[in-house]
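Reviewer has doubts. Consider these tokens.
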Amino acid sequence: MSPKTSIQFEDIRKEKRRLILDSALKVFAIKGYHGASIANIAGEAGISKGLIYNYFSSKELILKETISAGLKSMFEQYHFETENYSLEQFSKLIDITFDLLEEDYEYWKLYFSVLMQTDVMELIKDSLMEFLMPVIQNFTQLFEKLGYAKPYDEARFLGSILDGLSINYIIDPENFSKEYCVQRLKTIYKLP
């Protein structure tokens, strides 16, 4: 058997890291942050606790990385143009919000449970705001262009509406009319 190249080692590290984060997501979603342990995550991943510590120094860091990875993925799918945020982009955000919830249900279950635990939220607040503030700023600029008297407040209001709708969808997806919510939001904001 030939020795592995540095590229192969890096691929293996990325694979293991992804396995740990995916396993942590499942464990956190079921047990919550406080109920989960490194041993639980290792068991879900089928690896040793020691191996996890080769990649992450703490459960807190695993949580931060799990939340950050999910947000990065979401924002990549939205394809925000930060310079010229438009009504079309706004409309697209509304259209795909529920699709993203369906695609990664476990992640969003974890995300919203973390938001409800103030002590856990404090652990990730800075990382979370690093992702969310540019979006809020983009919406503030858009609402300013559209003539809203309080564009920043409107941007925060929209975020709260989307969070509330998302939580309700996560709780009861079978009885939640995402189509109604999408159309209602588009009507409120006069979107194409």
The chain has nine helices and no strands. The radius of gyration is 19 Å. The mean pLDDT is 87.
